[in-house]
């Protein structure tokens, strides 16, 4: 493995069902920007295709370190059986530091609630680029807020 290639992983136990979590992450991500956490995800726009359909392209505006950032992403995989979604960044602020950046979310049902696993795969543009720990922390923060929202909707 190259020193520029990396992977960050995180897990979060949530109270919501895997199906409800998957539904938002794959098919209804605009809920994040309109209801769940507009201060962290101010916008999520569909640019091409249909929500939840492979190859659809979305543009996300997110706040990291107090600054608004943008990521244009393609939905690379969506598996409703295993509640798994993978997005790959095509353009935006992350491409200033990474030649490849993808985010995979897998939501595994538990007896009570679910386990959300996050995997960020990346290739840094240079040795001076730090791993995207802040992006992992942002995703965990967003998913905690999503869990609270989904529980309150039950």
Secondary structure topology:
Blueprint: E1 5-14, H1 18-27, H2 30-36, E2 43-48, E3 57-64, E4 67-79, E5 84-92, E6 98-109, E7 114-124, H3 133-153
Antiparallel strand pairs: 1-7, 2-3, 3-4, 4-5, 5-6, 6-7
Organism: Corchorus olitorius
InterPro entries: Bet_v_I/MLP (IPR000916), MLP-like_ligand-binding (IPR051761), START-like_dom_sf (IPR023393)
Protein name: Bet v I/Major latex protein domain-containing protein
Please indicate the percent range of residues in DSSP E strands (runs of 2 or more): 35-45%
Mean pLDDT: 96
Can you identify the CATH superfamily?
START domain
Helix content: 10-25%
Keywords:
single chain, 154 residues, alpha+beta, Alpha-D-Glucose-1,6-Bisphosphate, Chain A, domain 4, seven-stranded antiparallel sheet, 25% helix
Précis, in short:
By secondary structure, this protein is an alpha+beta fold.
Explain what this protein looks like in three dimensions.
It comes from Corchorus olitorius. The protein has a single domain, classed as Alpha-D-Glucose-1,6-Bisphosphate, Chain A, domain 4 (2-Layer Sandwich). With 154 residues, it is of the alpha+beta class. The protein has three helices and seven strands. The radius of gyration is 15 Å and the shape is globular. The relative contact order is 0.25.
């Amino acid at each position: 493995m190259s020193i520029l290639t990396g992977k960050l992983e995180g897990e979060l136990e949530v109270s919501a069902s895997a199906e409800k979590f998957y539904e938002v992450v794959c098919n209804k991500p605009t809920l994040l920007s309109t209801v769940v956490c507009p201060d962290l995800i101010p916008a999520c726009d569909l640019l091409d295709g249909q929500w939840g359909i492979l190859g659809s392209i979305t543009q996300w505006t997110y706040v990291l370190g107090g600054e608004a950032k943008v990521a244009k992403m393609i939905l690379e995989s969506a598996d409703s059986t295993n509640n798994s979604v993978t997005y790959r960044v095509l353009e935006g602020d992350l491409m200033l530091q990474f030649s490849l950046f993808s985010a995979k979310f897998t939501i595994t049902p538990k007896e009570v609630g679910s386990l959300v696993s996050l995997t960020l795969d990346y290739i840094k543009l240079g040795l001076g680029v730090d791993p995207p720990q802040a992006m992992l922390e942002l995703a965990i923060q967003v998913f905690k807020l999503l869990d609270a929202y989904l529980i309150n909707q039950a």
